[in-house]
Design goal:
Residues 1085-1096 have a biased composition (Low complexity). This protein is mostly beta strands. The protein folds into eight domains: 16-173 and 303-388, no CATH class; 180-293, no CATH class; 399-502, Immunoglobulins (Immunoglobulin-like); 514-614, Immunoglobulin-like (Sandwich); 629-747, Immunoglobulin-like (Sandwich), CATH 2.60.40; 758-849 and 875-885, Immunoglobulins (Immunoglobulin-like, Sandwich), CATH 2.60.40; 896-983, Immunoglobulins (Immunoglobulin-like, Sandwich); 989-1081, Sandwich (Immunoglobulin-like), CATH 2.60.40. Helices cover 9% and strands 39% of the residues. The protein is built from eleven helices and 72 strands. It has a six-stranded antiparallel beta sheet with strand order 6-5-8-13-10-11, with no helix packed on it. Strands 4, 7, 9, 12 and 14 form a five-stranded antiparallel beta sheet that branches. Strands 23, 24, 25, 30 and 31 form a five-stranded antiparallel beta sheet that branches. It is elongated and about 165 Å long. The protein starts with 15 loop residues before the first strand and ends in a 15-residue tail after the last strand.
């Protein structure tokens, strides 16, 4: 053995487990076998074994749930200080070689009078209770106990227990033998008769009716249980007796046997198959059937049972197995997988064969059965213990709740589904008030001749996992109801009733009617005015079979166009007619129709529909004039769009627009085609005869227009007319009289255009004139387009070359006049031209527009999208002429200039400015004239004079004090004007230098230099020279600066030597010219000085 894992002595509980219930002086023992293994090869034997010892269980993990995870506890445990249950995990840390198998436990408490509940919980989620006790002594027995759940009050001290691994076969006593009611066969030996099995069941039957026979409270005896179990087991083909015989006496291994039954179906035969042994074990949920099968037995002990003392039994036997049978289905675990673990050296140790020796001794024929088994069958011994404690609590009261909404089953009954909260329960008794809902079976018993059958609830997903599910499908309508649910344990003990109540659900609403409503037009109506155009027909199918829970229809309510409701008695088909509202010709009225069913409670949901009432009379034709309406000119693909505007109509009205060719209509009318006649005259001829054309064959339906715009494409090269006939159509589909609808002539404008004009330009005094001449215009073409009208011209003018003529603006238009040689000509003066601008002209010519009307105009409701009816069609322009160019000039004007101060500033007024597109700009040239008469240019950096960009031009020449300025204008062509002189306004000055020694107490230490500046002109007496005087040596060394008449001190150390000369330079200001003094000697110093930091 290893320290990490201990061997298991007994069979896993998933295959075989035992449970017990004390009823002094007897013990009820219940065997639970997995459907995967079925029944053993011989009767079940229960050996009563003495308990070697009761020991304190020390290896226990105590814990309680907490928000942050399980919280571990240590005994003693005060239950009053814990909010929630306390769990005890019974572990195994002892020194035994085998894993402990606690089959009996006693929970020790400090005060046995304080109430608490001890439950044996399953080892999975820990929520399902296997058994529990709520009174002292807290002793519990089971096949295996691994977890306890304790709730209530008081203090828990510890747990004592009995370990089933300490049981031995040497001291075992045969308690009882429980055999199947089946004859000996290859799959079983030691069976009993069915009557013996019935006797076994009847002896342990109930003594009084319970929840299964709700409403009846009578005493029951042996015969009542005998007849009840006989009726249950004797059900034909699917009862336990038939299934048991079929599984054990016919065919293969009983665990593999499947039963096939016919299902009742009036349409076609149907069958179902189910596992026979699994069906037998399901039927064993009834305690009587379980006793009949030998799965529930009673061992009578020769003493009163002590609730504080442990009792124990062991059951063992041989099973024939199919390893492929599933033990669990989700996830699937095969029996072979479980058997493999049992063959593990840590499970099912060999010494357990002590129990199989007892089996062989009790049933010697087992050896024969084992020897005769087929080779594909696996034989496996199974051993399971069980302890017996004090009487456990009966099943807990179930907690039923409503699950989902009510569902109506028929008119007066509905169904509800219930969910049993908490872990999945066993058999239940289900009742609605005092009416039991479990199925019943006729037994013929002396106390009751009809008995209730147990009900195994379905399964449903609940908040805590899988829960029980029940359904009641026959609840009477309109009454509150309370359901009672009791659950039974494996020994037939019933819980108290759990209750849940519900109010009756609202009955389903009546269905919305299926309505067929239509307008039936009248056959004879006056042609004009407002009339009733027909009737509104309403048909409603009234269903004879309504949905479950729905009350029958008592009345059909019909409301048409807001009129008072019309109540009609229900019939299979309700039909009624009502006058439609009045309409005008072509009018449309939407008539609402609302229908609803009534039952005894009142109206149901309504169905609303709308009937469109359309006046069936013909509409009036349109009014149109005789003018030709023009299409657009052909596009590059050779098609021309015709777009017309039709009169606006009421909603729902349309137009059928028909199109016919001139030649087809002339054939219909018998009129010849003269192509030299004006198209307007030809159009009038056919339009006047429109009433004679009632045949639709010359026409093509071009479009159905729902709005006011009709557009279509016409061939651009065809010179004949087309005729449009727009026929109004009402919403009812009625057309106006076809022959009475007038014809609208339409045509594509002609392509005729004259040759390109010849264009010349010549001087016309100070202006220019242009002469246009066009040759090759045929007078017959002029007469066909517009008799008596001349061709026209237009001139385009540009200043930046020719470019695309389309983007050159038109400056002149007019009519051409006939010339003597058959040509057409025009002379156009070019006035208002800007000088020095080079202009380019191009000319175009066109024929007169084609007239559209050859008769007196009349109002028309059909209009062209562009223009108005009667507008002529403009003729296309010719290609442009060869461009010609011309320019006018202007003389150079006299200059108006003057010079002013400060500055001097030269101002030129009323100067000529060239146009933006001129060939050049006007320019101003300026010279300075000194006292010697020489001219010095005053030009911008390019040396070409100043561009005149404004009529007022200003130039500044700071500090120049010459005699005058000379100015000259240059035009854009480079021609020059005369020189104009302007005197200079600056005042001349004279500068004198005053030199004085600078004396101190120690002698001369330098000199004072002062610049005296005076104005030379008396006109400047009102101003005093300002600015700066700069002092320098004779060789140019700057000694410093000071304002006029302000002394500047110069020390001996500022210059390298003395005895030189100095001068003063006046720099000038805005009104005074600069000047320089005569040089003056400087005083000599006593020694050489240091070179000053002076500016040269």
């Amino acid at each position: 053995m290893t320290a990490g894992r201990k061997a298991e002595v007994y069979t896993p509980e998933s295959l075989l487990r035992l449970s017990s219930l004390a009823e002094s002086p007897a013990a009820h023992l219940r065997a639970w076998v997995s459907p995967a293994i079925g029944f053993p090869l011989h009767p079940l034997i229960y050996w009563r074994v003495p308990v070697p010892q009761i020991e304190e269980i020390r290896d226990i993990l105590w814990w309680t749930p907490a928000p942050d995870g399980p919280r571990e506890l240590q005994p003693p445990i005060d239950l009053d200080g814990i909010d929630g249950p306390v769990f005890a995990e019974l572990r195994d840390a002892g020194g035994s070689d085998f894993a402990a198998r606690w089959c009996w436990v006693a929970v020790d408490v400090a005060d046995p009078h304080v109430p608490l509940t001890v439950a044996v919980a399953d080892g999975g989620a820990g929520t399902r209770t296997l058994l529990q006790r709520s009174a002292w002594p807290y002793t519990l027995g089971a096949s295996r106990i691994t977890r306890l759940r304790i709730t209530g009050h008081g203090q828990v001290v510890g747990v004592r227990g009995v370990d089933a691994t300490t049981f031995t076969a040497e001291r075992a006593l045969v308690g009882l033998v429980s055999a199947l009611p089946v004859p000996d066969s290859r799959w079983y030996t030691g069976g009993i008769s069915p009557d013996e099995a019935l006797d076994r069941a009847a002896q342990a039957g109930p003594t009084r009716t319970g929840p299964l026979d709700r409403g009846v409270d009578v005493q029951l005896g042996y015969d009542d249980e005998f007849t009840r179990v006989r009726a249950l087991t004797g059900i034909d083909r699917t009862g336990p007796h038939a299934l048991l015989q079929a599984a054990h006496l016919h065919g293969d291994l009983p665990a593999r046997h499947r039963t096939q039954v016919d299902l009742p179906d009036d349409r076609r035969p149907a069958q179902a198959r189910f596992a026979t042994v699994e069906a037998l074990l399901t039927g064993a949920a009834d305690p009587g059937v379980a006793r009949w099968l030998g799965l529930l037995a009673t061992d009578r002990v020769d003493e009163d049972l002590d609730p504080e003392r442990p009792y124990a039994w062991v059951s063992a036997g041989y099973w024939a197995l199919d390893p492929d049978r599933p033990v669990t289905k989700a996830p699937r675990t095969a029996l072979g997988d479980v058997l493999a673990t049992m063959a593990d050296p840590y499970s099912y140790p060999p010494w357990t064969s002590q129990w199989t020796r007892l089996v062989r001794a009790a049933f010697p024929d087992v050896a024969r059965v084992l020897a005769e088994l087929p080779g594909h069958v696996v034989v496996q011994p199974m051993v399971a213990p069980v302890g017996l404690g004090a009487v456990s609590d009966p099943p807990a009261t179930p907690d039923p709740v409503l699950a989902g909404p009510a569902t109506w089953e028929d008119r007066d009954h509905y169904g509800r589904r219930l969910r049993l909260r908490g872990p999945t329960s066993g058999a239940v008794a289900f009742a609605r008030g005092s009416l039991g809902l479990n199925e019943r079976i006729l037994t013929g018993g002396p106390g009751l001749d009809e008995r209730g059958l147990i009900l195994l609830p379905g399964r449903a997903d609940g908040p805590g996992g899988t829960e029980g599910a029940l359904a009641d499908t026959g609840i009477p309508a309109d009454e509150p109801v309370t359901w009672l649910v009791a659950t039974a344990d494996e020994f037939g003990r019933w819980s108290e009733d759990g209750r849940v109540s519900a109010e009756p659900p609202d009955r389903p609403e009546l269905p919305a009617p299926v309505v067929e409503a239509a307008f039936v037009p009248a056959t004879e109506l006056p042609p004009t005015g407002s009339v009733v155009p027909g009737t509104v027909s309403v048909q409603v199918a009234v269903p004879t079979a309504l949905g479950p829970g729905t009350l029958p229809v008592t009345d059909v309510e019909v409301v048409v166009h807001g009129r008072p409701p019309d109540h009609v008695a229900p019939a299979e088909l309700v039909a009624a007619s009502y006058d439609a509202p009045e309409t005008g010709v072509g009018g449309t009225v939407r008539v609402p129709v609302t229908v609803r069913f009534h039952d005894e409670r009142g109206p149901g949901p309504a169905t609303s529909t709308t009937v469109s009432v359309r006046d069936p009379r013909r509409p009036a034709p349109l009014v149109v004039g005789p003018a030709v309406l023009w299409a657009a000119r052909p596009d590059p693909t050779g098609t021309a769009e015709l777009a017309l505007r039709l009169p606006a109509q009421q909603a729902g009205w349309t137009y059928h627009v028909y199109l016919a060719e001139e030649t087809a209509l002339r054939r219909t009318l018998g009129l010849p085609l003269d192509r030299d006649r004006n198209r307007a005259q030809r159009a009038k001829e056919i339009a006047d005869a429109a009433g004679r054309i009632g045949d639709r064959s010359p026409f093509t339906l071009a479009a159905t227009v729902t709005g006011v715009r009709f557009a279509t494409a016409l061939p651009g090269a065809v010179r004949t007319l087309r005729f449009v006939r727009a026929v109004p159509v009402t919403p009812a589909g009625r057309e106006a009289d076809f022959a009475a609808c007038p014809l609208v002539p339409v045509a594509v404008p002609g392509p005729d255009r004259p040759p390109s004009p010849a264009l010349t330009v010549a001087a016309n005094g100070p202006d220019l004139r242009l002469v246009l001449t066009v040759h090759g215009i045929d007078r017959r073409t002029l007469d066909r387009l517009h008799p008596g009208a001349p061709p026209r011209y237009r001139l385009r003018r540009a200043t930046a070359g020719t470019g695309d003529p389309l983007y050159v603006p038109v400056t002149d238009t007019g009519e051409l006049a006939p010339a003597a040689d058959g040509a057409w000509t025009a002379v156009v003066p070019a006035r208002g031209l800007a000088p020095f601008v080079r202009y380019t002209w191009q000319a175009e010519a066109c024929l007169p527009p084609e007239i559209a009307l050859a008769a007196a105009p009349r109002p028309s409701t059909v209009l062209p999208e562009r223009g108005e009816p009667g507008d002529p069609a403009p003729s296309p322009w010719s290609t442009p002429s060869v461009p010609v160019q011309g320019m006018v000039t202007a003389p150079i004007p006299p200059l108006d200039a003057r010079a002013t101060l400060p500055g001097p500033t030269l101002t030129l007024r009323a100067a000529p400015v060239a146009a933006p597109d001129a060939v050049g700009a006007w320019r101003l040239r300026v010279w300075r004239r000194g006292a010697d008469g020489a001219l010095t240019p005053l030009d911008p950096p390019n040396g070409d004079g100043w561009a005149v960009t404004s009529s007022d031009l200003t130039l500044t020449d700071p500090g120049w004090a010459g005699e005058a300025y000379a100015l000259q204008l240059v035009d854009p062509l480079g021609r020059t004007g005369p020189l104009t002189e302007v005197p200079s306004p600056l005042v001349r000055t004279t500068t004198a230098l005053l030199v004085e020694e600078a004396l101190t107490a120690s002698g001369v230490d330098g000199a004072w230099l002062t610049g005296i500046v005076t104005a030379d002109s008396p006109a400047a007496t009102d101003t005093t020279p300002t600015g700066t005087v700069r002092f320098r040596t004779g060789d140019g060394i700057v000694l410093g600066e000071a304002p006029p008449r302000t002394a500047l001190h110069v020390g001996f150390g500022q210059i390298p030597f003395w005895g030189g000369r100095a001068a003063a330079d006046y720099l000038g200001d805005a009104f005074h010219a600069p000047s320089t003094s005569d040089a003056r000697p400087l005083p000599e110093g006593p020694e050489l000085g240091q070179p000053p930091d002076i500016e040269r």
